[in-house]
Write the structure tokens for this entry.
Amino acid sequence: MIAFSATLHLRRLISTRAFVAIILGFVFGTLIPTVLSQEFHIPYVSTQKLLIFSRPAWGCQRWC
Amino acid sequence: MTAEVEVEPPAASGSSWLDVRDVKGLDFCSPALLRPHGLAGVLSISIGLVFTVRSVLGMNHGAPASVVAPYVALYVVSSLVSAAGALGLIKKAPSSTRVFFKALAMLQIGLLYFTYRFATFPELLGLPPAMRAIADVAMASLAVASLLMQIYGVYTNTSDTPRGLRVATFVALAAISALAGYPGQLALFGESWLRKVCQWYPMQLNAFTCVLNSGRRAPARPDAHRLARCQVLRLHPGDVWTQRTYLNYTGRRALALWLSHLLTCSRARSIAR
């Protein structure tokens, strides 16, 4: 969507303001709901850590 | 997804947000009928939107692989066709922006491989482990290289790009770069790292791709899932393990807890019963 909106912006079909709104809207509009939904639907059995080098600090004895 | 771009220098930014007069001029089948960039892009974005909504509603977590796999297959194929079409259209873009479009197409191809990798398809195709390891490294390198290309493009682009646009591009790039984290670790540490992660976090493959159900390698484990949801809603306050997890709440988890109370308190209680 970012690249598509960039092409539209280059062709003068959308304004710079609309382009910025699309960039930020789509990136954060996807990121925030998916992060929150992961916390809501699959907490503990998944993690949000970007670097995973160790087991959960609170233990995983229920399934490990 | 990118549409065909004519070699036409853009004028100053207009005041209107959207000019629909020229939308009919977009060619959705270029550069070739076998790789219709625009058409495949529309399909890819539509399926991706359905994926995201299903994921947010929790419909993909725990769903059988047979339900999710067709969506995944369609998404991967349509996005791949779209990216291949974009590479064929790059020469039509203004020279100052070509590096961005090329890098984004490369990034899309790299991430699509990992969508495939974290789903059940590797087993379906019977890819040998050695080939898989080589492909992991190659595709992770492609993703990282594309991100570096974009950053380089932002730095070296000295055209009259508005400052707000540059800032927005940087913010978007910073958010997108997080997507290369798991592929990079998989490329560095290999399959054993992935197995350990799946052992520590049984639903982590779902989280890797946000929406994919990979029942083979990481069983859905409904008991653990159900237990976790009950713990979020404090349905077992006497459990020592539960109390310990509450001490580790982050602000994000607390916000999710608050939302969960608001949205589905009654539903979760019925699950607990």
About this structure: Chain A touches chain B through 56 residues (CB under 8 Å). Chain A has a mean pLDDT of 77. Residues 16-41 of chain A form the longest helix (26 residues).
